[in-house]
């Protein structure tokens, strides 16, 4: 399945981005615990997490409509990717790329790459620092082991 844009990644209608964003609340990971999750609704009916959690959750809930098969398929075929970048304030940050569109918990909207670089001031890591799907799997497994979600 060739991806020319977001529409080829997202075929089913289920949870919309607007719905997800209305239930999302940013929560910073403690300094010594960088854990990655597809976040679940908490007891207050909110999805709470940081930038990696936001990216993974948008991929799972909005793009893949809660299909783990599609989630991993898109990551392992590089139709979707968790991209690392440096923010304009110098911190590390994660952005979801699906097709030729990008989204993060700063923009909360699908934008072209230029929207991330020129618009938000993100500086993407060079290709040799790509966050591979295997890295995503390991970080998510470590999150499960460490708990706290």
Can you describe this structure?
- The chain has 149 residues and is α+β, with helices and mostly antiparallel strands.
- The chain has one domain.
- Helices cover 36% and strands 17% of the residues.
- The chain has six helices and six strands.
- It has helices at 6-9, 17-22, 51-63, 68-76, 113-119, 133-146; strands at 24-26, 47-49, 80-86, 92-98, 101-103, 123-124.
- Strands 5-4-3-6 form a four-stranded antiparallel sheet, sandwiched between helices. It has a two-stranded parallel sheet with strand order 1-2.
- The N and C termini lie far apart (33 Å).
Per-chain topology:
Elements: H1 6-9, H2 17-22, E1 24-26, E2 47-49, H3 51-63, H4 68-76, E3 80-86, E4 92-98, E5 101-103, H5 113-119, E6 123-124, H6 133-146
Parallel strand pairs: 1-2
Antiparallel strand pairs: 3-4, 3-6, 4-5
Determine the structural class based on helices, strands and strand pairing: alpha+beta
Please describe the biggest sheet, giving its number of strands, its sense, and whether it closes into a barrel: 4 strands, antiparallel
Number of domains: 1
Morphology: globular
Helix content: 25-40%
Q: How many individual helices?
A: 6
The poorly predicted ranges are none
Strand order of the largest sheet: 5-4-3-6
């Amino acid at each position: 399945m060739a991806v020319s844009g977001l529409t080829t990644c997202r075929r089913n209608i289920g949870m919309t981005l607007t719905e997800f964003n209305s239930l999302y609340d940013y929560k910073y990971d403690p300094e010594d615990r960088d854990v990655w999750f597809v976040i679940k609704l908490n007891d207050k009916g909110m999805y709470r997490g940081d930038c990696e959690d936001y990216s993974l959750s948008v991929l799972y809930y909005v793009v893949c409509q809660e299909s783990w098969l599609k989630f991993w398929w898109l990551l392992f075929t590089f139709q979707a990717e968790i991209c690392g970048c440096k923010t304009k304030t110098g911190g590390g940050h994660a952005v979801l790329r699906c097709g030729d569109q990008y989204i993060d918990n700063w923009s909360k909207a699908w934008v072209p790459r230029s929207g991330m670089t020129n618009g938000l001031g993100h500086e993407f890591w060079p290709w040799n620092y790509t966050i591979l799907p295997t890295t995503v799997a390991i970080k998510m497994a470590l999150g499960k082991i460490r708990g706290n979600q």
